[in-house]
Design brief:
The complex is a heterodimer of chains A (293) and B (505). Chain A is mainly α and 293 residues long. Chain A is built from 12 helices and 2 strands; from the N terminus they run H-E-E-H-H-H-H-H-H-H-H-H-H-H. Helix content of chain B is 45%, strand content 10%. Classes of the chains: A mainly alpha (293), B alpha/beta (505).
């Protein structure tokens, strides 16, 4: 009984902080999502709306388009970062000249604030002044203008995210690969397995916990991307890079449509949880199949 | 630590240092927080500028040590307040001023949230002319007339509302006439052009040979287009970084919508963004004008200008447009007047000093007559005031601050630094007249043509309406929608947004 009390006493500060910083805002957002509340409305007051805000979401093609764009961005960004990060981590396991310098430089983007990353990429890509449009035009005759061409803007935001977060994936993969026992791989090679078979049947299954954790973290981050993209393109051109975070920001702040914005936030939270759960179940099944085989 | 182990740490540091050093030299002049060159940043004669300093110190005695917090958009006029007027006020009164000068979006976000939640973070906020109707509708602001009447001992002898231009009327309650904001900036959006190019005899001859009429500052849209086309070709032929016009066409920022509805559409005779203020409808079928043939003609003209604008046009807000013009990259363009003085005089930031002319925008037939009669207007009269939020915990000290910036004696230097004038007497100040010569008549134009320009329509839902329209203008600028499609969709979205807010049902 005493140890129970001590346990709860030690947990209490954390639980209180979590409750105040996490649970209460969530409950408040949930509450607001059932109201029409816009500072600029004729009444300016909160008015009960029932589930109307959620019904609006289903028919809001701009929001749904934004959600789809975000999912595509997340899929491409996380996949690319995972592959690149794994390859870089594998490379960093070996010795080569300048390895430590490379590893340090490679990790630098991680310590840069997202808003600064956006500003740097804006300076790099701004039409008329940036290095990227200048050299792409001069060397390859490519008219690179992220203020005008939707595909270019989308892939530039993707490249920016990959540049920013691949080092994180590399470091987690490197930690996993370094901690992995060497004996099973040596045994497999003695038994005649080639490098691909070692990777496919040993390394990847053994790395699965690291991969799953990394994918979860990156997926949740990518789904709520705002700062860098807002700085780089503002969500444009048109709707090309108006990811769901920027969309919600515009509804909640410039439009001050708090009720509708809250409903959007909850739907995105729901999607994130569902995606994370599906991913977890799928990867767990893969892990079980591999361990049983 | 051995040198072998230090090396990996030092090399990246050196690389980062070199990159940062290289980044410190900007590729193009950009607006900074510095007042314009040649500007007296002392605020003029200090004693005169602060009026009777003994009165200020006596009146402020009960509030000495209080800290006033304010938020404003980062404009030349606001930066002058932050750097010059706030320290002067603190020196005269002992009241501290913490002034956040931030981006336009963030300024609104912070001010509105503070006033809506009644948190009392801010003691004074920037009230742009276009948002005053919303703030009044929500009782966000303190009645300054009443506050002065309740605190007669705080009524400065140097503050008189009658000294202000008629721009102050924007910040009065239409019914009672009570004041809710003290104007701090007012300017018009003008057509800037390069005098060195337009006055060059060789260029004039080349233009006339090609178009069959003399080169001059455009008074019609057709002429503006010809000028833009000519100078773009001229820049290309002579391997110059020169284009025919600016376009404030950022495809992800509200400034693009603003340029069209406030500076282009009115020159075609489409006013109030095309919204019928009686019915709150925007589409032609419902009595609005947003998607009228005239509005579509105006949008087609503006989109066509992208062909003659620098490549950065689709990434340019109001700041970048001014920077592009100052860098000498456009022969003519629509630029907010607050930038006129530094572009025309500041050699540190502008490559076109001494070569800047100011003019009205090109107009369609009949628009000038409508503006002169008061039925319409030819462009945007921008500006704002400082007001005291109803949630402020230091209303009396904030009143003193507003009276301080509303003194006649601080206006002239502020006018030169920020290209803004809010008092009639400022036009006659020698410093302003000197700046008028340097800008080829900007201040004269502000005085004489000011009545032809107008602020934003009295929408009580300004931001929401504009946000509903933005995506269609962005898509049109990106070439995803035609002008016709963009305006048809924008007017429908605008009507839906107004209905959602409880207007025009």
């Amino acid at each position: 009984m005493d140890s129970n009390r001590t346990g709860w006493g030690l947990l209490a500060p954390t639980l209180i902080i979590l409750g105040v910083m996490g649970l209460l805002p969530f409950l408040y957002v949930l509450y607001i999502s059932f109201f029409d509340w816009n500072v600029f409305s004729a009444s300016g007051q909160m008015e009960w709306a029932g589930v109307n805000n959620f019904r609006r979401l289903v028919f809001d093609s701009a929001f749904l388009g934004s959600l789809g764009r975000t999912l595509l961005f997340t899929l491409l960004a996380v996949t690319s970062e995972l592959i690149l990060g794994f390859l870089l981590a594998s490379t960093l396991l070996r010795d080569f000249p300048g390895k430590i310098v490379f590893r340090t430089i490679h990790a630098l983007p991680l310590v840069i604030a997202p808003i600064a990353v956006g500003a740097t990429w804006r300076l790099l890509t701004i039409p008329g002044f940036g290095l990227a449009p200048y050299y792409l035009d001069r060397w390859f005759d490519i008219d690179y203008n992220i203020g005008r061409y939707a595909e270019q803007a989308f892939f530039t935001t993707l490249a920016m995210d990959i540049w920013h977060w691949t080092p994180f994936v590399t470091l987690t993969m490197l930690a996993g690969l370094t901690a992995m026992p060497k004996e099973p791989q040596e045994q497999a090679r003695v038994d005649g397995a080639n490098r691909w078979q070692v990777l496919r049947f040993l390394t990847i299954p053994m790395m699965m916990p690291v991969i799953v954790t990394t994918v979860f973290i990156r997926m949740m981050d990518a789904l709520r991307i705002v700062d860098e993209v807002f700085m780089l393109t503002g969500g444009g051109p048109g709707n090309a890079t108006r990811y769901v975070g920027i969309y919600i920001w515009r509804v909640v702040f410039p439009q001050t449509d708090y009720g509708y914005g809250s409903a959007m936030s909850l739907l995105v939270l729901y999607f994130t949880i569902v995606l994370a759960w599906l991913l977890f179940v799928a990867l767990a099944q893969v892990g079980n199949q591999q361990s049983s085989s | 630590m051995s040198s072998r182990r230090l090396l990996p740490l030092l090399v990246p540091l050196m690389i980062v240092s070199m990159i940062l050093a290289a980044c410190s030299a900007p590729a193009a002049p950009a607006p900074t927080a510095e007042p314009a060159a040649g500007t007296d940043t002392s605020g003029g004669d200090s004693a005169a500028a602060s009026g009777d300093t003994s009165w200020w110190s006596e009146a402020a005695a009960p509030y000495a040590g209080v800290t006033l917090r304010g938020v404003s958009e980062s404009t030349p006029a606001s930066r002058y307040v932050e750097e010059v007027l706030a320290p002067m006020f603190t020196e005269a009164t002992g009241i501290n001023v913490e002034f956040e000068v931030t981006s336009w979006d963030e300024m609104y976000q912070k001010a509105i949230q503070d006033m809506e939640a009644n948190t009392g973070i801010y003691d004074f906020v920037y009230i742009e002319q276009d948002i005053i109707y919303t703030y009044l509708g929500r009782d966000f602001l303190t009645n300054l007339t009443q506050l002065m009447a309740d605190n007669e001992n705080l009524a400065s002898p140097d503050f008189d509302v009658n000294n202000f231009t008629s721009f102050i009327d924007n910040f009065k309650d239409p019914e009672t006439g009570d004041l809710y904001g003290v104007p701090m900036e007012a300017f018009i959006k003008i057509n800037l052009y390069r005098t060195d190019l337009f006055d060059d005899p060789d260029i004039q001859a080349a233009f006339e040979a090609e178009y069959g009429y003399p080169l001059s500052v455009a008074t019609t849209h057709e002429q503006y287009r010809d000028n833009a086309e000519f100078f773009t070709a001229y820049g290309e032929e002579n391997d110059m970084d020169l284009w025919g016009t600016t376009v404030q066409g950022h495809t992800g920022h509200p400034s693009a919508t603003y340029e069209f509805v406030e500076s282009i559409a009115p020159t075609y005779g489409v006013y109030n963004w095309g919204v019928n203020l009686d019915t709150w409808k925007a589409c032609v079928d419902n009595g609005g004008e947003m998607n009228s043939d005239t509005a579509k003609e105006a949008l087609n003209f503006w989109l066509d200008m992208l062909n003659y604008a620098p490549p950065e046009a689709t990434s340019s807000t109001w700041d970048e447009v001014a920077a592009s013009f100052a860098a000498g990259r456009a022969a003519q363009g629509w630029v907010y007047g607050e930038n006129a003085t530094w572009i025309a005089t500041d050699t540190d930031r502008s490559a076109v000093v001494g070569n800047v002319g100011v003019a009205r925008s090109p107009l369609s037939d009949g628009v000038l007559e409508e503006a002169e009669s008061g039925e319409g207007y030819i462009g945007y009269y921008d500006g704002g005031a400082f007001g005291v939020p109803h949630s402020s915990r230091n209303k009396e000290a904030a009143l003193l601050w507003l009276e301080f910036i509303g003194q006649e004696s601080v206006q002239a230097d502020w006018a030169v630094a920020g290209s803004r004038i809010v008092m009639n007497s400022t036009f006659d100040d020698p410093k302003v007249q000197e700046a008028d010569v340097a800008t080829n008549g900007y201040y004269t134009m502000l005085k004489d043509d000011g009545p032809l320009y107008r602020g934003a329509p009295p929408f009580p839902f300004h931001n929401t309406l504009r946000e509903s329209m933005d995506p269609f203008f962005w898509q049109a600028l990106a070439g995803e929608l035609t002008a016709e499609e963009a305006l048809d969709q924008a007017c429908a979205a605008a009507e839906a947004a107004m209905v959602q807010l409880g207007y025009g049902e």
